Design the sequence.
């Protein structure tokens, strides 16, 4: 039987679920089967992924304090609420002292690491600023806070400079590994090139970063086969960390026009959980983040992801005055919480998921360590 939306060469896997779950290599057909699983098959997938996670990376969940330090962006990704052309967005750049105070909060509360995230700019003032912030965060924490950057596509020199100053992980989602789909969700111009995105991922690895990437799940035009290919792409790229979550529409973006093509939010959420579980089986020793977008659909969304494979949570430490201006999608959670409330609420939730928090630890991915030793 041919699958919907796939090429003519595509055949559905007819293997029984328990046989697939015993494998350590997975074909595209196997992965589609996992992503489409329901009922008892889905329960079996989730149990297998939870067991694999505990066996390989343990029960700990690591915190990365997320600081969305600026929503200025030169790009126009068709899905993103803070895209350059959205004139309704009030643009901000948090002051250095507020960013550093958020990082100090992370350090004081033994979060282990912070993530500095922003729109994508390539001006020298932006590059210098990130560089200065990285050095200052290292200085304020005696070199103890781990630093992840998520500031988009940059040149090799910039990535190298930030790495030398102390950043050691970088998150740059491929968004979709399917070039046609990538072009459908980005403007068709040089500033939004699929090849450049791939090149940046290669550069980041060559510079020595722990490499994180990921995709959006439930995009318009996306098929199950696309998602299975995304998982295989992550494996081929040999990434250390993955952050992937449901696509959520935003009414002031061009992609909103296609909202009638979308699965329901609940279906996107369920599919995102099956993606996390399938990825844990495919790449057992990587770090997998429980995406904030999960929580936008289900208040316990991130805890559900932790139960079935994720091991990283990113509490939002963005100064509360700016949170409403970093609206990537509708219903983004925790807009009116301060950092303390956020931490308390997370602790209770992680406990619910039967995990413990790796306080004061960087929580580097085992995969990265294995890669270093190889
Ligand atoms: N500008 C940097 C970049 O694009 O890599 C970092 C910030 S960007 C806001 C971080 C991520 O937000 C993107 O990689 C994208 O996957 C996600 N995102 C943007 N709009 C989204 C939406 N409508 N639904 C879900 N995720 C979204
Ligand atoms: Fe800018 Fe990143 Fe949003 Fe694209 S996803 S518009 S680069 S902030």
Sequence:
């Amino acid at each position: 039987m041919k699958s919907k939306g796939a090429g003519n060469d595509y055949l559905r896997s007819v293997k029984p679920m328990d046989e697939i779950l015993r494998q350590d290599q997975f074909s595209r057909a196997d992965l589609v089967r996992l992503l489409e699983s329901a009922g008892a098959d889905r329960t079996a997938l989730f149990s297998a992924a939870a067991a694999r996670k505990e066996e390989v990376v343990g029960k700990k969940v690591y915190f990365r304090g997320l600081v969305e330090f600026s929503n200025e962006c030169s790009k126009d990704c068709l899905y993103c609420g803070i895209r350059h052309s959205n004139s309704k967005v009030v643009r901000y750049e948090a002051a250095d002292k507020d960013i550093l105070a958020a990082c100090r909060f992370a350090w004081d509360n033994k979060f282990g690491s912070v993530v500095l995230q922003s729109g994508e700019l390539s001006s020298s003032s932006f590059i210098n600023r990130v560089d200065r912030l990285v050095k200052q965060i290292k200085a304020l924490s005696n070199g103890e806070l781990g630093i992840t950057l998520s500031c988009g596509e940059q040149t090799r020199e910039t990535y190298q400079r930030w790495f030398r100053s102390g950043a050691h992980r970088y998150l740059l989602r491929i968004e979709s590994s399917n070039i046609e789909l990538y072009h459908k969700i980005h403007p068709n111009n040089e500033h939004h090139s699929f090849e450049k995105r791939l090149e940046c991922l290669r550069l980041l690895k060559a510079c020595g970063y722990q490499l994180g990437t990921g995709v959006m799940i439930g995009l318009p035009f996306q098929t199950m086969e696309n998602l299975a290919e995304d998982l295989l792409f992550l494996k081929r790229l040999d990434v250390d960390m993955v952050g992937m979550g449901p696509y959520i529409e935003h009414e002031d973006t061009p992609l909103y026009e296609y909202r009638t093509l979308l699965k329901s939010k609940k279906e996107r959420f369920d599919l995102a959980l099956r993606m996390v579980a399938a990825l844990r089986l495919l790449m057992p020793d990587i770090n997998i983040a429980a995406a904030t977008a999960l929580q936008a659909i289900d208040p316990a969304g991130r805890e559900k992801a932790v139960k079935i494979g994720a091991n990283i949570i990113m509490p939002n430490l963005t100064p509360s005055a700016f949170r409403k201006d970093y609206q990537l999608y509708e219903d983004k959670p925790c807009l009116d919480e301060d950092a303390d409330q956020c931490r308390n609420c997370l602790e209770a939730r992680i406990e619910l998921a039967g995990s413990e928090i790796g306080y004061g630890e960087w929580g580097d991915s085992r995969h990265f360590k294995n890669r270093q030793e190889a």
